[in-house]
Design a protein that fits this description.
The protein is an alpha+beta fold. The chain has four helices and 20 strands. The strands form four sheets. It has a six-stranded mixed β-sheet, with no helix packed on it. Strand 9 and strand 10 form a beta hairpin. Helix 1 runs antiparallel to helix 2. The chain is elongated.
Length: 390
């Protein structure tokens, strides 16, 4: 945990960051040394040259004065400069600036990341982030020894962050299994992990487990510094972006999960449609009829909708609906890929395509400009929608 200042954005969520070391104690110690030195100079000026032990007293005070000056010089000349390092933001945030909170894994200066930036979270927070202090700024040698002696125990029993590798993902429990392996403290080489595998929920921007894949290198945060309260907050490097051109090639490594909707209900987000390619992925988890809505602002007028839908539902015999509402300027067209509601000319059954990519000619249906999309799913199902509008 520490404090940094953004110098520049390298690209893809990686930054040049100046680490702002805590040097307040240095200033206090130098001020105290100057005060003591002034007091000694006053005592030297007050000495009476006529007293019998004048020379001895003067020599003693000069030695004390020289000692204080050397301590001051040491502090002034050996306080390390604020280093500039390359650091990844734990999530895909590319517009950070100013002072930010940093993550040091595993609780000491090593590999440095920037706090997840979504929603302004990366902004420096003293209570959460603290500040790195070099040992020279410690109040005493005894205090430095004390801190180093306690470091392995603190890292193990009051954990902050760990790196890990995703080994499994459960859509049912919305938990991710992460292998954290063996990690040793810099002090005495003591192991500091309580277990080697953890099961954690996801807290990545506004997305759930769908943004992660087996093999991803992730950052695990322990809430309240409690090993039993882990959560995944981002990636160790190369964080996944949540808005990315699809270019007609569907791949699990370029997922944007809009929302998880469970137990029925609805939700919506706004998409930026500037540029040429507009890709999105949504997942609905329905135990009742669920909707995931996307507002397209400003509206766009594509001629073709390219879509791939993967659906699974657990209870045989349940009537299953899987569809997409395309909201035009004047009409809403509903395309059903499984099931469907008849009797309305705006409802179009396009059949079950078995998870294969296919195209819908929007011009043929007279859709026109599109201002929004709503993904529909019915009971006891997991649906994945991959869309491109061209």
């Amino acid at each position: 945990m520490g404090k940094g200042e953004i110098i520049s954005h390298i690209g893809g969520g990686q930054y040049n960051v100046k680490l702002l070391l805590h040097r307040d104690n240095i200033a206090v110690m130098i001020a105290n040394l100057e005060t003591q030195n002034e007091a000694i100079e006053d005592r030297i000026a007050a000495l009476d040259p006529e007293v019998e032990d004048y020379e001895a007293r003067l020599a003693e005070l000069n030695i004390q004065k020289l000692s204080l000056e050397k301590k001051k010089s040491y502090l002034e000349n050996n306080m390390p400069e604020d280093p500039t390092v390359e650091a990844w933001c734990a999530d895909y945030t590319t517009d950070l600036s100013g002072e930010v909170g940093t993550i040091e894994v595993p609780g000491e200066r090593g590999e440095v990341l920037i706090q997840p930036g979504y929603g302004g979270n990366a902004a420096y927070n003293q209570a959460r982030d603290g500040r790195l202090q070099p040992s020279i700024a410690s109040r005493s040698a005894a205090a430095t020894f004390y801190n180093l002696a306690l470091l392995p125990g603190w890292q193990k029993w009051k954990p902050t962050y760990r790196f890990g590798t995703v080994t499994g993902i459960s859509l049912t429990t919305q938990l991710v299994s992460v292998a954290v392996g063996e990690v040793a403290s810099s002090q005495q080489g003591l192991g500091i992990n309580q277990t080697y595998v953890i099961y954690a929920p996801v807290h990545y921007m506004v997305f759930g487990v769908g943004v992660f894949s087996v093999g991803d290198k992730v950052v695990v945060e322990f809430q309240d510094q409690d090993w039993t309260k882990p959560r995944i907050i981002g990636f160790r490097d190369h964080p996944k972006m949540v808005w990315e051109p699809w270019h007609r090639s569907i791949t699990a490594f370029h997922d944007w999960e809009i929302e998880n909707v469970s137990e029925g209900g609805s939700s919506s987000v706004i998409l930026d449609t500037s540029g040429d390619d507009h890709y999105l992925k949504a997942r609905t988890v329905g135990l009742a009829l669920s909707f995931v809505g996307v507002e397209i602002d400003p509206p766009i007028s594509p001629s073709t909708l390219i879509i791939k839908i993967s659906t699974w539902y657990s209870l045989g015999g349940d009537e299953k609906y899987c569809g997409l509402m395309v909201h035009g300027e004047t009409d809403t067209h509903v395309f059903f890929f499984l099931g469907g509601w008849g009797g309305n000319p705006a409802y179009h059954s396009v059949g079950d395509h078995g998870g294969e990519e296919f195209e819908i000619d929007l011009d043929a249906y007279g859709v026109g400009a599109i201002s929004g999309l709503t993904m529909i799913n019915s009971c006891t199902s997991y649906d994945w929608y991959y869309l491109d509008l061209v």
